[in-house]
């Protein structure tokens, strides 16, 4: 059993590797920090759905977000603004990194109660589904730090996030220790015993 301390330490390493800055507001031609989340569709921000590009509340749907900008927004754009930004990037560039951080923002919206009470449980399930999609569709996706020397598999963090949200990891994923004693999520047989209809592409 791995402690929550271990999980948050791993997540901290990832966030340090990709984002910095303490400014409480971020400007992107408008005040992103002031954007509020409103439930639209249960597949928004979950690959392969592109429904976020149809959401009138998504301010990024028409002009997109660059790779140079997305981490600034993650760090300083507020939860809702960052969710819409990353969901937009995910819809146009479906990779594990974009799915993971989109799910992180759904998680943060849920935890911060930044959603109508009647939609809060749905947002929790959306976050779990987003993390599960990392496992299902992007199991080998990795993140490199700024030096390009430290790499990190998103699958392990996604696995731990699902558990932390009270979800159940689907498929044949298990958590083991690597040679350094760090938790690592792996597929034990690569056979999905639940016979789920997983859509990735």
What is this structure, in a nutshell?
This protein has 201 residues and is mostly helical. The chain contains six helices and four strands.
Description:
The chain is 42% helix and 8% strand. Helix 2 packs antiparallel against helix 3. A two-stranded antiparallel sheet has the order 1-2. The protein has a two-stranded antiparallel ribbon with strand order 3-4. It contains 6 helices and 4 strands; from the N terminus they run H-H-H-H-H-E-E-H-E-E. The protein is globular, with a radius of gyration of 16 Å. Mean pLDDT is 85; it is low at 12-27. It has helices spanning 4-18, 67-76, 79-92, 96-111, 120-137, 154-164; strands at 142-144, 151-153, 173-177, 183-187. It has one domain. The chain is mostly helical.
Beta-strand content = 5-15%
Overall shape: it is globular
- Quickly count the helices: 6
Mean pLDDT: 85
Cα(first) to Cα(last) distance is 34 Å
**What is the gyration radius calculated from CA atoms?**
16 Å
The tally of strands reads 4
Helix % is 40-55%
Order of helical and strand elements: HHHHHEEHEE
| Major β-sheet annotation | 2 strands, antiparallel
- The residue ranges in which pLDDT falls below 50 over 5 or more consecutive positions are 12-27
Number of domains: 1
* Physical arrangement of strands within the biggest beta sheet: 1-2
Secondary-structure-based class equals mainly alpha
Q: Which SSEs are present, and which pair or pack?
A:
Elements: H1 4-18, H2 67-76, H3 79-92, H4 96-111, H5 120-137, E1 142-144, E2 151-153, H6 154-164, E3 173-177, E4 183-187
Antiparallel strand pairs: 1-2, 3-4
